[in-house]
Amino acid sequence: MRGMLLIGALQFGVTYVCLYLSFRVLTVPEVLLFTILTPLHVTLIEDALNRRFNPWALLAALVAVLGAGVIRYDGLDGDFLGGFLLLQVANFTYAAGQVLYKHLVARHPSDLP
Questions:
Q1: Rounded distance, CA 50 to CA 32, Å?
Q2: Which residues span the membrane (predicted)?
Q3: Is the dihedral of CA 46, 70, 82, 13 positive or negative?
């Protein structure tokens, strides 16, 4: 139960606080652009938890990020670094929540959906 609370706090607490705060310094297109890095976070966290490195998963994540970057890039304002860092914390905590939930459910199966 504590594991689920920690995952929820990461995924819905930290993630959305950072996301909300990023809108104070970034434009909507910048927020959309910077959230495309989430697949990289997911891949790297999953590999770290499994103590392995999967270059194909990293390559797939990079292709997804590059493709999304081509689609979403619309220029940047000069003062975006703080918002970028907030969004990377949000991306990381969201990705960590996703990966940790997968590992928690695998370790403690339940009949509940």
A1: 29
A2: 5-25, 56-74, 80-101
A3: negative
d(CA 101, CA 113): 13
Rounded Cα distance between 93 and 60, Å, is 21
Token digits of residue 73: 């890039």
Are 33 and 89 contacting, i.e. CB atoms less than 8 angstroms apart? Answer: no
**Rounded to an integer, what distance in angstroms lies between the CA atom of residue 59 and that of residue 84?**
23
How far is the C-alpha of 46 from the C-alpha of 41, rounded, in Å? 8
Q: Which one is predicted more confidently, 111 or 45?
A: 45
Could you write out the DSSP letters of every residue in 64-99?
A: HHHHHHHHH-----S--HHHHHHHHHHHHHHHHHHH
Backbone phi and psi for residue 25, each to the nearest 5 degrees, phi listed first = -120, -10
What's the pTM? 0.83
Q: 22-61 pLDDT, tens per residue? A: 999 998 888 888 888 899 999 999 999 999 999 999 999 9
Q: What number of other Cβ atoms are within 10 A of residue 90's Cβ?
A: 24
